[in-house]
């Protein structure tokens, strides 16, 4: 869960040319001598290469014609410090595991972007003293992996910290200046109104620093959304926010706008099906938006009762699907026609409701991992909490574990 992201063939080349994108070229020590078009980096779905039962990137490429992956997440070390790690634990400087994944992808004609931040954990913008030191930490990642693209995923709790956001936006601007042609996306929370107060403050910070990325993307899920119509409504509202913040006209705002969805069942129990993805894709392409991605490829496969039991999972989608169904919408956004599915998915069995845990108490103190029941659902604490009603806030301390 997000809160837990060879040369192209003739058909691909035609599709990319039709998309009107420009290829970048760069040499580096990591084996990536030719960058993909910006459209591919804009379409790259999130993949956790070290957690959540990582799928085989090469198998996904073979099945879907996908070329780009958004690897997640770069964080500050759990023990403190201003140096990049994968997930707070695996130092980038000594990494070989993620490098192997990247090498496999590039050997098949693909490439990666790397996402920094995400939900939870300590972000480098919080740990580093200023924008310059934050940028220096991220430059280590760019240099080690020879990156042509990077994503700033600015979420809870970092985006509530104005100093941290100032460091992140400042670092993004420095990296953009020091790495010509670098594709930079900025991803943040979505609401029905487009984005919330903290998202708007982040945009104002970018404006004050004179920073314009390739796109600002919102995540319209985990906020009371109900299918594609609510998501396209949020994208329309976010476009208005971009216009009013930066003084852009509508077309310019759409050209700097992105969508980052969640396939299947979200953290709060919303469902987004293949049909929803198609509707949002149609909206994104018809409005000439810059980005269409989702969380995550680790979840782009059907659950079994043993995997899931009706709960949101980091390793499957909780909807009926063939493996990599959702990845094919990213391929379409990039301008390529993905292969056609042949197998018919087996319907996901209706899960049997589980027994209810002990009832939530407003006076009890709960710590990470404690389970309670409230309003006929079981809930698990994500961190220390007291007197915070389960489900009361989309960013709250409780994770919905399904009906009981």
The main pleated sheet reads as: 10 strands, mixed
Secondary-structure-derived class: alpha/beta
- Estimate the strand proportion: 15-25%
| Overall residue-averaged pLDDT value | 88
Q: Whole-Å distance between the termini?
A: 21 Å
Number of contiguous helices: 12
What is the helix content?
A: 25-40%
The gyration radius over C-alpha positions equals 20 Å
Weakly predicted, low-confidence segments: 3-30
The overall strand count is 19
Shape: globular
Structure commentary:
This protein starts with 9 loop residues before the first helix and ends with a strand. The chain is of the alpha/beta class. The strands form 5 sheets. Strands 3, 4, 5, 6, 7, 8, 9, 10, 11 and 14 form a 10-stranded mixed β-sheet that branches. Strands 16-17-19 form a 3-stranded antiparallel β-sheet, with no helix packed on it. A two-stranded antiparallel ribbon has the order 1-2. The chain is built from 12 helices and 19 strands. The N terminus is likely disordered.
Q: How is the secondary structure organized here?
A:
Elements: H1 10-19, E1 23-25, E2 34-37, H2 38-43, E3 46-47, H3 57-64, E4 68-75, E5 85-86, E6 90-91, H4 97-107, E7 111-118, H5 124-127, H6 131-145, E8 149-154, H7 162-178, E9 183-189, H8 197-209, E10 215-219, H9 228-246, H10 250-255, E11 257-262, E12 264-265, E13 271-272, H11 274-286, E14 291-295, H12 327-334, E15 365-366, E16 371-374, E17 377-381, E18 385-386, E19 398-403
Parallel strand pairs: 3-4, 4-7, 7-8, 8-9, 9-10, 10-11, 11-14
Antiparallel strand pairs: 1-2, 4-5, 5-6, 12-13, 15-18, 16-17, 17-19
């Amino acid at each position: 869960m997000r809160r837990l992201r060879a040369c192209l063939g003739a058909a691909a080349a035609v599709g990319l040319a039709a998309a009107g994108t420009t290829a970048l070229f760069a040499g580096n020590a990591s084996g990536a001598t030719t960058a993909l078009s910006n459209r591919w980096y804009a379409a790259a779905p999130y993949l956790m290469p070290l957690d959540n039962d990582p799928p085989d990137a090469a198998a996904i490429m073979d099945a879907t014609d996908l070329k780009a992956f958004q690897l997640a997440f770069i964080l500050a070390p759990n023990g403190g410090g201003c140096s990049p790690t994968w997930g707070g634990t695996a130092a980038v400087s000594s990494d070989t595991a993620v490098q192997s994944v990247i090498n496999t992808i590039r050997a098949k004609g693909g490439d990666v972007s790397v996402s920094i931040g995400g939900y939870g954990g300590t972000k480098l913008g919080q740990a580093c003293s200023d924008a310059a030191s934050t940028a220096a930490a991220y430059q280590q990642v760019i240099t080690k992996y020879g990156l042509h693209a990077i994503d700033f995923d600015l979420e809870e709790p970092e985006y509530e910290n104005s100093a941290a956001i100032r460091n992140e936006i400042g670092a993004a601007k420095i990296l953009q200046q020091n790495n010509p042609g670098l594709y930079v996306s900025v991803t943040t929370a979505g609401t029905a109104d487009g984005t919330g107060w903290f998202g708007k403050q982040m945009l104002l910070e970018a404006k004050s620093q004179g920073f314009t990325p390739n796109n600002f993307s919102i995540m319209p899920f985990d906020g009371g959304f109900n299918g594609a119509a609510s998501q396209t409504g949020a994208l329309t509202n976010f476009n208005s926010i971009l216009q009013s913040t930066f003084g852009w006209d509508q077309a310019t705002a759409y050209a700097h706008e992105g969508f980052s969805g969640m396939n299947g069942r979200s953290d709060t129990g919303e469902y987004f099906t293949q049909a929803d993805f198609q509707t949002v894709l149609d909206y994104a392409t018809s409005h000439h938006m810059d980005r269409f991605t989702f969380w995550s490829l680790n979840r782009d496969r059907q659950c079994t009762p043993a995997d899931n039991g009706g709960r949101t999972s980091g390793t499957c989608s909780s909807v009926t699907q063939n493996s990599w169904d959702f990845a094919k919408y990213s391929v379409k956004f990039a301008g390529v026609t993905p292969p056609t599915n042949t197998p018919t998915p087996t319907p996901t069995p209706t899960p049997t409701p589980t027994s209810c845990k002990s009832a939530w108490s407003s006076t009890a103190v709960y710590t990470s991992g404690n389970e309670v029941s409230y309003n006929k659902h079981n809930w698990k604490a994500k961190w220390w909490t007291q007197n915070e009603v389960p489900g009361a806030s989309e960013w709250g301390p409780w994770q919905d574990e399904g009906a009981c």
